[in-house]
């Protein structure tokens, strides 16, 4: 029998999701976000870029504002009202102090107990190559969760009124091939599907399939894949790092 996944912790009130691009959270994680916001928890999104290099047929100057608008609409579907963009350049995000500083600043602003990010490893399941943007932002989010609480790292943030926050208790990595915890996907799945569908321009550029059918098939198959490790329930999975 496959090793069972533990339920995600529930004794928290605020979460901050930090990813590279519009749509990163909508490929499954948004179903968990919908359930969390339904329960009265606060979730905010921070995106390193506007996804301006993500659609080959659209120039970045057109694609960036369009994808930003779609991300805000997508977040609203699952009860997220705070969406911030850090302004890093899509496709060439660099891991380093500048990125860590920006994410640490966001953590100090939002003061989350839970930080969520996307797979930071070089591959998806040891098979498909991950993108450098995902790797850089995922690694930086893990590091920034500690940076945010140390007044001697990025001391200029304190001068800007962003006092240290050492209240991050966990970093949850979505899309990991080493999951440890899960959330029942069923209560939030329909809104998760609509949240991905809100990225219509991007989805239509990806597939010739009907956009709604594409979103429904992809997300339903994804959460069912982990059901055997979560008591038979469709699941959004995370690798949880205590802080």
UniProtKB/TrEMBL annotation:
A Pfam cross-reference name: PIG-L
Keyword Cell cycle: no
Alphabetic keyword roster: Zinc
Family matches, as InterPro entries: GlcNAc_PI_deacetylase-related, LmbE-like_dom_sf
Tree of life domain: Bacteria
Record's protein name: PIG-L family deacetylase
Annotated organism of origin: Streptomyces albidoflavus
Lineage: Bacteria, Bacillati, Actinomycetota, Actinomycetes, Kitasatosporales
């Amino acid at each position: 029998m496959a090793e069972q996944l533990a339920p995600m912790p529930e004794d928290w009130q605020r979460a901050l999701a930090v990813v590279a691009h519009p749509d990163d959270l909508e490929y499954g994680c948004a179903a968990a976000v919908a359930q969390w916001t339904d329960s009265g928890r606060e979730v905010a999104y921070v995106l390193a870029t506007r996804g301006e290099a993500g659609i080959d047929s659209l120039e970045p100057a057109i694609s960036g504002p369009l994808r930003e608008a779609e991300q805000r609409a997508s977040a609203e579907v699952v009860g997220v009202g705070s969406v911030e963009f850090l302004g890093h350049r899509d496709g060439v995000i660099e891991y380093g102090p500048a990125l860590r500083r920006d994410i640490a600043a966001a953590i100090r602003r939002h003061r989350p107990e839970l930080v969520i990010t996307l797979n930071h490893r070089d591959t998806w399941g040891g098979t498909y190559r991950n993108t450098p943007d995902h790797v850089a932002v995922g690694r930086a989010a893990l590091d920034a969760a500690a940076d945010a609480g140390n007044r001697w790292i990025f001391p200029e943030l304190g001068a800007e009124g962003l006092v240290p926050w050492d209240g991050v208790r966990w970093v949850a990595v979505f899309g990991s091939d080493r999951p440890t915890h899960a959330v029942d996907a069923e209560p939030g799945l329909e809104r998760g599907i609509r949240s991905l569908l809100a990225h219509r321009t991007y989805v239509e550029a990806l597939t010739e399939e009907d956009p709604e059918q594409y979103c429904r098939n992809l997300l339903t198959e994804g959460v069912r894949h982990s059901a055997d490790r979560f008591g038979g329930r469709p699941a959004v999975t995370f690798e949880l790092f205590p802080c």
